[in-house]
């Protein structure tokens, strides 16, 4: 049995000290109430992208230091090299190999707190950018590439879809040799694309960098339009000038993230376990595709109704409102992977002390085991439910503020009704999948 399959979340819902029906109803009511409160009290746009309080000059100097950036890139590249080496030269047993834990737990889930708390840090230390720069120096190629990078986030959406399929569906996904091959293949393809299209490829086509950078829009640390580093209201980073063109492919990225996390919850419900073969790649693939398609259909359908009610351009609305989906993606990720990161993430540190199974004890972690007392059931339950509810409320706030920028308050409220209905439905569905173990 794949240990990582069992490690996601708590591995079961029956031990959570919650009344499922009460939590589901309460969550839906909270999101609906937040919408009606917004219509009464939020009559004009309040999320200003040009707002924020400058951070102390010393902190900004350190954050922008070339030495700090170089050190971060060196650490990230060394970590990548260690994980790849451990994948191929370390123990064949996935339970004792560093690579699966480093990829699926520390990196994939760890990008969330790193980006949300510290901003677009990954973009600065991305080891693929470092490898690309080194290749350009060795081959004397122009880092800007031979042609402009593709517009929109569609390549990143494709990469993220492939990764969540690997994480949630693919057989033998925790096999260290497979993990090593996936990491190397991903690096080669993206560095090659950047050599052709230029370094701008990473901002559009590197799924992990795009994912981390989008999450960083909700960070309390951001850049003022004039370039200063400022403290800001987290949702401010989701706002855009209505005159700017919609962000192509961003809605696809958000729907992949929301749909895949929802599918992860569905696979651990009693219904799925009793009716579907957990090892069926076909069932898993179809289920993942259906979850992403359903989220996409709900989103696009709601905006089509919004366009009909307000007279706004239906073709432009999905791209304009796509950033408002990011708090939902964040909420779902926290709900499903909080305990996974806090508990199973300890394995990365434990195994890093002996990455090749040679009997080393580099970090003094030899013989250590996961401390499950770090995340008691009540704490996990509170984080899971509140993450989903607050994520939808934050998305409702951001969508309402954006709607006020696109038209007068009366039309904005009317147009937000279908979006609010979808938010309530997704909240209840998310909590149902989370709590029906």
From TrEMBL:
Instruction: Keywords in alphabetical order, please.
Output: Membrane, Transmembrane, Transmembrane helix
Keyword Manganese recorded:
no
Keyword Membrane attributed: yes
Q: Where are the transmembrane segments?
A: 20-38, 70-89, 101-122, 178-198, 279-301, 321-343, 417-435
Put simply, this protein is called: Fenitrothion hydrolase
Instruction: Say which species the protein is native to.
Output: Thermomonospora cellulosilytica
């Amino acid at each position: 049995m794949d240990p990582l399959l069992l490690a996601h979340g708590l591995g079961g819902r029956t031990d959570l000290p919650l009344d499922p029906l009460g939590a589901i109803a309460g969550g839906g009511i909270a999101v609906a109430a937040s919408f009606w409160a917004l219509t009464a009290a939020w009559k004009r746009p309040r999320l200003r992208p040009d707002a924020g309080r400058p951070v102390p000059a010393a902190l900004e100097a350190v954050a922008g230091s070339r030495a700090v950036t170089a050190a971060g890139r060196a650490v990230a590249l060394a970590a990548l090299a260690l994980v790849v080496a451990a994948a191929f030269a370390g123990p064949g047993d996935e339970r004792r190999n560093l690579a699966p834990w480093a990829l699926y737990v520390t990196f994939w889930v760890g990008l969330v707190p790193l980006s949300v708390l510290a901003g677009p840090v990954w973009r600065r230390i991305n080891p693929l950018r470092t490898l690309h720069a080194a290749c350009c120096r060795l081959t004397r190629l122009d880092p800007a590439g031979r042609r402009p990078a593709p517009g929109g986030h569609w390549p990143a959406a494709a990469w993220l879809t492939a990764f969540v399929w690997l994480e949630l569906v693919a057989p033998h996904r925790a096999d260290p040799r497979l993990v090593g091959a996936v990491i190397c293949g991903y690096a080669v393809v993206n560095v090659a694309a950047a050599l052709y299209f230029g370094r701008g490829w990473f901002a559009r086509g590197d799924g992990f960098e795009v994912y981390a950078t989008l999450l960083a829009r909700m960070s309390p640390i951001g850049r003022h339009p004039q370039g200063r580093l400022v403290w800001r209201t987290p949702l401010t980073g989701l706002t855009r000038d209505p005159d700017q063109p919609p962000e192509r492919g961003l809605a696809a990225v958000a729907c992949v993230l929301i749909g895949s996390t929802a599918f992860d919850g569905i696979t651990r419900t009693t219904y799925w376990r009793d009716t579907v073969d957990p090892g069926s790649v076909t069932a898993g693939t179809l289920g993942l595709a259906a979850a992403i398609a359903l989220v996409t259909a709900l989103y696009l359908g709601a905006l089509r109704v919004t366009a009909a009610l307000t007279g706004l351009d239906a073709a432009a609305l999905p791209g304009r409102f796509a950033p408002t989906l990011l708090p939902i993606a964040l909420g779902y990720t926290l709900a499903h992977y909080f305990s996974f990161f806090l508990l199973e993430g300890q394995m990365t540190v434990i195994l890093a002390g002996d990455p090749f199974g040679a009997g080393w004890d580099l970090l003094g972690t030899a013989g250590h085991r996961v401390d499950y007392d770090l995340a008691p059931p009540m704490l996990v339950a509170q984080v899971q439910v509140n993450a989903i509810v607050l994520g939808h409320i934050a998305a409702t706030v951001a969508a309402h503020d954006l709607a006020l920028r696109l038209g007068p308050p009366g039309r904005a409220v009317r147009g937000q009704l279908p979006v609010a209905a979808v938010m309530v439905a997704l909240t209840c569905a998310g909590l149902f999948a989370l709590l029906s173990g």
